[in-house]
Design brief:
Blueprint lengths: L9 E5 L10 H18 L4 E5 L13 H21 L3 E3 L22 H20 L1
Parallel strand pairs: 1-2, 2-3
Helix pairs in contact: 1-2
Protein name: 1-alkyl-2-acetylglycerophosphocholine esterase
InterPro entries: SGNH_hydro (IPR013830), SGNH_hydro_sf (IPR036514)
Organism: Pelobates cultripes (Western spadefoot toad)
Length: 134
């Protein structure tokens, strides 16, 4: 339970994508929506910033990497509609959609220089939030 004050006004959630290829798409989206609803119940009035799942050079657990990539796009679109209907903000990572090898570590899954990427997400989210609020 969240008992400490002050409660956050904004929460940034990054869709990591590790369950793609393991969990059926509908079930995954259902769980993600339930998690967001649960968060909003714990923190009334919180604004949600949704950081979309980014593409990868390879998907672990995938029998068909193209199918998993399509699934990622569908999940992102579905969650974007859901988050926007709740008054939230969606961060789409267009710069990563080209799937350039330089963005990834040797495993093709994890982003290189993750700390820098987190800062970019945070700054972008806050700038977008400022535009919406004021």
């Amino acid at each position: 339970s969240l008992t400490e004050e002050p409660l956050p006004n904004v929460v940034v959630i990054h869709g990591g994508g590790n369950d793609l290829g393991l969990v059926p798409q509908r079930e995954l989206v259902k769980c993600m929506k339930q998690d967001v609803d649960r968060l909003r119940g714990l923190v009334p009035g919180v604004k949600v910033v949704w950081s979309e799942m980014v593409p990868r050079l390879c998907w672990r657990y995938a029998r068909d990497e193209k199918a998993v990539s399509r699934c990622r796009g569908k999940v992102n679109r579905t969650m974007a509609v859901f988050i926007r209907r709740l008054g939230g903000v969606v961060v789409r990572h267009r710069e990563l959609e080209e799937r350039l090898p330089g963005y990834f570590r040797d495993d093709g899954v994890h982003l290189s220089d993750l700390d820098k990427w987190r800062v970019i997400v945070g700054e972008f989210s806050l700038n977008k939030w400022r535009v919406i609020v004021g």
